[in-house]
């Protein structure tokens, strides 16, 4: 049974080309139907051109407006009522309303009748993060037991299994109760979507000892220790984000955003420096070929596009936020992650855990 995922076709820096190409790749590779939200006059000719006559389940959902990176998120969310984000997330809301157990869809193009834009199981955007979060909160609402959503990001580790860091910027100020909810959400996502059994959850601080940290981490620590059903390993440090010591690292959104941007900057520095070093030192062609392969493998390990974007956890529904510089591969992976998230029943697990906590 294919799963319906709606994509903000006007989100990325180079939109809508990467979105259209990524949608086609995803429709080829996964059991998904992709709905591109955006202005039909722009999308239709491009989609036709890229499909080259192939019959793939990629559809267009008309949306006359889109939110740019320059827009002030809160204002754009209110004023642009026909934005790609609002239309896309409304489809997710419709999908949730109808999804009590799997219901068979109508045949063929069940779409865009008078009943509105149709239904979807998840939404992906590579657009304005603040606007995506604000729209998701407004259109989808929050899960029961969750006060604030968290943006989670997936990081590569030396052990080859990914680790999850949250919150990386949905909230600038969080309190200990928020961090406890982030821990539950991160645990469920790591277990059900990343398929890490009994994930180790750490609290990001400035030292492993309980006494290390600031007032928020010190107040949060005993709450996480007392939390049932979570494999809490205590304080972790910045280096533990990549050494595989923790599967889930929990922090305040301000700290997480600084950590994430620092990681991205470091990855870029290392990649560029390595490329320069290879260029200047490799003399024999054989060496160049070997190192090119090694370099590509290395780059792939650091490449966010492999992971397909950051899930917004805590909203009622599936919303994945990708990097503005997402290419078609990143968009394809974003669609895959949205489908995996939708199928993994993470949200009902989060609600159940928070009600027993």
TrEMBL record:
One of its GO terms (molecular function) is phosphate:acyl-[acyl carrier protein] acyltransferase activity. It is an enzyme of class 2 (transferase). Keywords: Acyltransferase, Cytoplasm, Lipid biosynthesis, Lipid metabolism, Phospholipid biosynthesis, Phospholipid metabolism, Transferase. Its EC number is 2.3.1.274. It is found in: Cytoplasm. GO terms for biological process: fatty acid biosynthetic process; phospholipid biosynthetic process. Homodimer. Probably interacts with PlsY. Belongs to the PlsX family. This is Phosphate acyltransferase.
């Amino acid at each position: 049974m294919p799963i319906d995922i709606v994509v903000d076709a006007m989100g990325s820096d180079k939109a809508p080309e990467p979105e259209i190409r990524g949608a086609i790749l995803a429709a080829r590779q996964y059991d998904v139907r992709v709905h591109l939200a955006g202005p039909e006059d722009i999308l239709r000719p491009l989609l036709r051109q890229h499909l080259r006559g192939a019959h793939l389940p990629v559809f267009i959902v008309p949306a006359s407006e889109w939110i740019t990176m320059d827009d002030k998120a809160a204002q754009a969310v209110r004023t642009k009522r026909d934005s790609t984000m609002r239309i896309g997330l409304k489809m997710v809301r419709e999908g949730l309303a109808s999804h009590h157990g799997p219901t068979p869809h109508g045949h063929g193009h069940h779409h865009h009748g008078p009943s509105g834009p149709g239904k979807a199981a998840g939404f992906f955007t590579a657009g304005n993060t603040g606007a995506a979060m604000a729209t998701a909160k407004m259109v989808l609402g929050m899960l029961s037991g969750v006060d604030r959503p968290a943006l989670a990001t997936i990081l590569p580790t030396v052990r080859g299994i990914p680790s999850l860091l949250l919150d990386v910027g949905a909230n600038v100020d969080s309190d200990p109760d928020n961090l406890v909810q982030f821990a539950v959400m991160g645990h469920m996502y790591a277990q059900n979507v990343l398929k890490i059994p009994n994930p180790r959850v750490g609290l990001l601080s400035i030292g492993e000892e309980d006494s290390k940290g600031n007032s928020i981490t010190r107040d949060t620590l005993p709450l996480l220790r007392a939390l049932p059903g979570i494999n809490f390993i205590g304080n972790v440090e910045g280096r533990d984000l990549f050494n595989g010591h923790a599967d889930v690292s929990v922090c305040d959104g301000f700290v997480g955003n600084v950590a994430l941007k620092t990681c991205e900057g470091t990855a870029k520095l290392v990649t560029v420096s390595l490329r320069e070093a290879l260029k200047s030192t490799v003399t024999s062609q054989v060496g160049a070929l070997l190192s090119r392969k090694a370099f590509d493998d290395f780059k792939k390990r650091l490449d966010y596009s492999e992971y397909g974007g950051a899930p917004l956890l805590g909203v009622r529904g599936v919303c994945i936020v990708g990097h503005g510089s997402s290419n078609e591969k990143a968009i394809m992976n974003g669609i895959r992650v949205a489908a995996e998230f939708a199928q993994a029943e993470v949200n009902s697990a989060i609600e159940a855990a928070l009600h027993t906590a």
